[in-house]
Amino acid sequence: MRHVFLLSALLVFLSACGPGRQQRKEGAITLTDVQGHKVVLNKPAEKVVCLFDPMMDAIFMLQMQHTLVGIPAETYADKELFIPYSLIDDRIKNKRLAIPGSNETANLESIIALKPDLVIAKHMSEGTIKALGEMSIAVYLASSEKYEQVLKELADVGQLLGATERAAELVAYTKQQFEMMQSAAAAVREKDRKKAYFTWANGRIYATTGRNSMMNDCLEFAGVSNVCTAPVDQPNVNAETLISWNPDMIVMWNDPAVLFYAKKELSAITAVKQKAIFNLMPMFFYNPHTIKSLTASMRIKAWAAGEAPETSLEEVKKMMIKYYGETNGNKLITLL
Length: 336
What we know:
The protein is α/β, with parallel strands linked by helices. The protein folds into two domains: 27-162, Nitrogenase molybdenum iron protein domain (Rossmann fold, 3-Layer(aba) Sandwich), CATH 3.40.50; 170-335, Nitrogenase molybdenum iron protein domain (Rossmann fold), CATH 3.40.50. The chain is 46% helix and 11% strand. The chain has helices at 2-16, 21-24, 53-61, 74-77, 79-88, 90-93, 108-113, 126-133, 147-160, 164-186, 214-221, 239-245, 258-261, 270-273, 293-304, 309-324, 326-332, and strands at residues 29-32, 38-41, 48-50, 68-70, 118-121, 138-141, 195-199, 225-226, 249-253, 277-280. A four-stranded parallel β-sheet has the order 4-3-5-6, with helices on both faces. Strand 7, helix 11 and strand 8 form a beta-alpha-beta unit. The protein is globular, with a radius of gyration of 24 Å. The termini are far apart.
């Protein structure tokens, strides 16, 4: 009998150590990213290299910025990122956090030297992902291109960092706000909707947003019609096309309205004649590739309705405090 008992105990022990048991133990995290890669962690990540700025933003909203050991290079190079982040993280202010890559590139040796549990990026080659995996470094790829993706990726990162409750809170709040906005938009008759033209930053007034984009989602949530019907993300148009669209309002991404007013050929456009040109500035507060697409939509909705700009700006401030927490939120709104 004693031999039977010992044999049974040995079988139980071997079963516990068998293939696949590691992933099933209590606390294991397994999910699939936007590119279909399986991401596995035995416990929430404690050291994170994030090379994609919308995901870094999500980490700050989750109040898990202490896990960051590496950030995108553009955080220091782009003042639109550096100024707000330096207000809420002294490591960024003093440029102490490593920058082992950016949205488009990753320095494998620099990443490995930081000994992270998790790397978050937008693009990464299969070879790099495999090499990191062999060193027990998980890789999560994000895209943040559409509303549902933004919510899923926020929830995923919350799970990977052990901040599921905070992620659920942010997702629920954002969904609730957008649902109220959708209800209001649905009540507006099609013929009464403002026709809006959106233009990206850095003087690119003929670079707009098509129907397959997060900014198009923002326009729809705001209850306005996107004059561009192209089924792509960021098409380029010409002056003749813009004139033929004749938008009622123009929404600019971090650029001055004078770029339109200075062009005589555009003077007959309704939005130009009526000075209905509005600016999402500073862009940090309206990034459509984060849940701050809510603030962008809310301001566009207010502009379309002719509301006082101060009223919607106060709403943005409240949302920033909700998204970043009382302490960091109040620091950030000093920039508005």
